[in-house]
């Protein structure tokens, strides 16, 4: 027997009125949504082999149970294909993990988005972009998976901009913010393998994050040269005294140069950790710490990161161009939100 | 064109009773806990409030805890100690 869907139903005359109803009810992110009909929602649930009443997450501070039915409805609205549903489910599980700390990044004036990194065979198989125009539009998987998670946050958990989402300037990544690692061309160990998963498994890593900061270095042909530029930019970023974690995304040219120098991801992390320290004097001169500068402040340094492992290194982006980027986490401190990597379960049986 | 039926993506708010501890009639002789949220000057603000509660309202004593950071609820150790050692709590945002 098929388990009934319990969501309230709304009947309208045609598809355009259905889309308008979604606007009127405040169910969209500002873009039109696909009307969630029962057959479309059923297909989404079937693809993840989930019963509609299956609880995917419980958001403690909101006292909200997120069921598979509600995730499926929002995934349909976002424009997901049914085969994306297991990824959306794993991402929602991730942001409900206590270490991700939903309440902080979802509500904070700091304006974090949910940044997602796809690893494993599911990335190329479902067409996730990991190359040119990495954060740009044009790929259904990247565009709709992130959008589905944001619609779940909005419609199920109640994270409404201006009410419970109080981001001061917000973040365009709140529409969608999904990349895949370019494992096919990367010389390095993929992120999910570094985090204990098998290379043949697929995962989604969720991190509360600010927008990407692009940096440019077309001059250097050494790992140190490129990373020196990166670290200079990251030192400037110390706007809140440092974030709990950073992602460094290295695109084709930089990736090849750094790898040709024989550097591993671990070498990159250590270099970034060692070269992003900022003097207390600088914090004071730039009005980020109170008080006047003492001679001791000139030689007392604050680390940007607590440890090298707080840098997640990802190989992705276009083959051409001397650009890469780093992505700061959310300004809540180490104890408030940590990135989480979840297995994507395409077959549950 | 045939009518179309769509499913509601939202959840009904779960109604649950919340029981608040009765506010004390007076702070005289009460032990006051102050929960500081880590932002600049929040400790100074709460210290001043604590002084006023002792000097003007007769509170017996004040003690302060510091949260891990401003964006998270008070952690378990604070709640446990507060239950054991104070009668009322003031939580404030210095921002």
Provide structural commentary.
The complex is a heterodimer of chains A (349) and B (95). Chain A contains 13 helices and 13 strands. Chain A is α+β, with helices and mostly antiparallel strands and 349 residues long. The model of chain A has no long low-confidence stretch (mean pLDDT 94). Chain B contains two helices and four strands. Chain B has a three-stranded parallel sheet with strand order 3-2-4, with helices on both faces. In chain B, strand 2, helix 1 and strand 3 form a beta-alpha-beta unit. The mean pLDDT of chain B is 89. At the A-B interface, strand 1, helix 1, helix 3 and helix 5 of A face strand 1 of B.
Strand and helix map with partners:
The complex is a heterodimer of chains A (349) and B (95).
Chain A lengths: L8 E4 L2 H10 L13 H11 L6 E5 L4 E4 H11 L6 H11 L7 H5 L5 E7 L2 H5 L13 H16 L22 E3 L10 H4 L8 E7 L3 E4 L6 H14 L9 E5 L1 H9 L4 H10 L3 E2 H6 L9 H4 L2 E2 L8 E5 L7 E6 L11 E4 L6
Parallel strand pairs in A: 4-5, 8-11
Antiparallel strand pairs in A: 2-3, 4-6, 6-13, 7-12, 8-12, 9-10
Helix pairs in contact in A: 2-3, 3-4, 3-7, 4-7
Chain B lengths: L3 E4 L23 E6 L5 H14 L5 E6 L9 H10 L2 E5 L3
Parallel strand pairs in B: 2-3, 2-4
């Amino acid at each position: 027997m098929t388990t009934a869907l319990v969501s309230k139903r709304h009947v309208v005359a045609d598809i355009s009125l259905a889309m308008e109803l979604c606007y009127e009810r405040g169910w969209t992110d500002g873009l039109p949504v696909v009307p969630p009909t029962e057959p479309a929602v059923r297909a989404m649930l079937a693809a993840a082999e989930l019963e509609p009443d299956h609880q995917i997450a419980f958001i403690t501070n909101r006292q909200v149970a997120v069921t598979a039915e509600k995730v499926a409805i929002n995934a349909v609205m976002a424009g997901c294909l049914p085969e994306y549903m297991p990824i959306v489910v794993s991402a929602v599980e991730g942001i409900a993990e206590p270490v991700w700390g939903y309440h902080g990044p979802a509500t904070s004036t700091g304006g974090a988005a949910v940044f997602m990194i796809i690893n494993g065979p599911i990335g190329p198989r479902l067409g996730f972009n990991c190359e040119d125009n990495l954060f740009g539009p044009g790929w259904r998987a990247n565009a709709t998976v992130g959008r589905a998670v944001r619609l779940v946050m909005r419609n199920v958990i109640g994270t409404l901009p201006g009410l419970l989402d109080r981001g001061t300037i917000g973040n365009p990544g709140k529409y969608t913010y999904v990349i895949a690692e370019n494992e096919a061309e990367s010389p390095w160990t993929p992120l999910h393998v570094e985090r204990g998963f098998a290379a043949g498994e697929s995962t989604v890593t969720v991190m509360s994050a600010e927008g990407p900061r692009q940096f440019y270095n077309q001059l250097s042909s050494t790992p140190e040269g490129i990373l020196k530029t990166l670290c200079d930019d990251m030192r400037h970023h110390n706007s809140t005294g440092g974030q709990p974690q950073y992602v460094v995304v290295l695109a084709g040219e930089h990736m090849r140069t750094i790898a040709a120098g024989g550097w591993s991801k671990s070498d990159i992390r250590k270099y970034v950790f060692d070269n992003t320290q900022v003097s207390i004097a600088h914090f004071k001169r730039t009005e980020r710490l109170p008080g006047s500068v003492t001679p001791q402040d000139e030689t007392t340094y604050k680390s940007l990161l607590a440890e090298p492992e707080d840098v997640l290194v990802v190989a992705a982006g276009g083959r051409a161009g001397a650009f890469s980027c780093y992505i700061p986490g959310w300004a809540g401190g180490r104890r408030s939100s940590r990135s989480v990597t979840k297995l994507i379960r395409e077959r549950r049986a | 064109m045939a009518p179309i039926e769509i499913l509601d993506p939202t959840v009904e708010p779960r109604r649950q009773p919340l029981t608040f501890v009765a506010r004390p009639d007076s702070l005289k002789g009460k032990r006051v806990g102050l929960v500081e949220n880590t932002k600049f000057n929040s400790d100074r603000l709460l210290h001043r409030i604590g002084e006023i509660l002792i000097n003007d309202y007769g509170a017996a004593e004040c003690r302060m805890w510091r949260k891990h950071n401003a964006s998270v609820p008070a952690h378990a150790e604070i709640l446990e100690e507060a239950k054991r050692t104070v009668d009322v709590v003031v939580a404030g945002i210095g921002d």
